[in-house]
């Protein structure tokens, strides 16, 4: 199983390609043993719901950008609107492509 943001050579080997939530759903309804190529952070969520599943993750699959987000930071931005990010139009247009793709994948 692989997240769609993985390299193409990984995706070509995957039996399933999907969002983080899609991977979790597939593990819960599928076999007892999986190789998962995505951010290791989902490991805890899967073991919470299915502690008997045997999962294999690559040691290097840690998304540093995802680790920057914390509950405290989310609470702060929701409560006072702080830490807004402003970018120029060129960067915004480029960023919109993966953002739309992530939202599409989350809806699967």
From TrEMBL:
Q: Which residues form the signal peptide?
A: none
SUPFAM superfamilies, sorted: NadA-like
Q: Tell me the InterPro entries matching this sequence.
A: NadA (IPR003473), NadA_sf (IPR036094)
Name under which the protein is recorded: quinolinate synthase
Provide the Gene Ontology terms for cellular component: cytosol
In Gene Ontology terms, what is a biological process of this protein? Answer: 'de novo' NAD+ biosynthetic process from L-aspartate
The cofactors it requires, by name, are:
[4Fe-4S] cluster
Pathway(s): Cofactor biosynthesis; NAD(+) biosynthesis; quinolinate from iminoaspartate: step 1/1
Q: Which organism is it from?
A: Fusobacterium animalis ATCC 51191
- Superkingdom of the organism of origin: Bacteria
């Amino acid at each position: 199983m692989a997240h769609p943001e993985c390299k193409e050579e990984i995706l070509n080997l995957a039996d399933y390609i999907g969002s983080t939530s899609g991977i979790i759903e597939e593990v819960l309804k599928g076999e007892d043993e999986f190789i998962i190529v995505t951010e290791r952070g989902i490991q805890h969520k899967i073991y919470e719901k299915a502690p008997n599943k045997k999962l294999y993750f690559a040691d290097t699959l840690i998304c540093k950008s995802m680790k920057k987000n914390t509950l405290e930071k989310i609470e702060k931005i929701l409560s006072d609107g702080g830490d807004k990010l402003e970018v120029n139009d060129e960067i915004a247009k480029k960023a919109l492509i993966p953002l739309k793709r992530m939202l599409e994948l989350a809806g699967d």
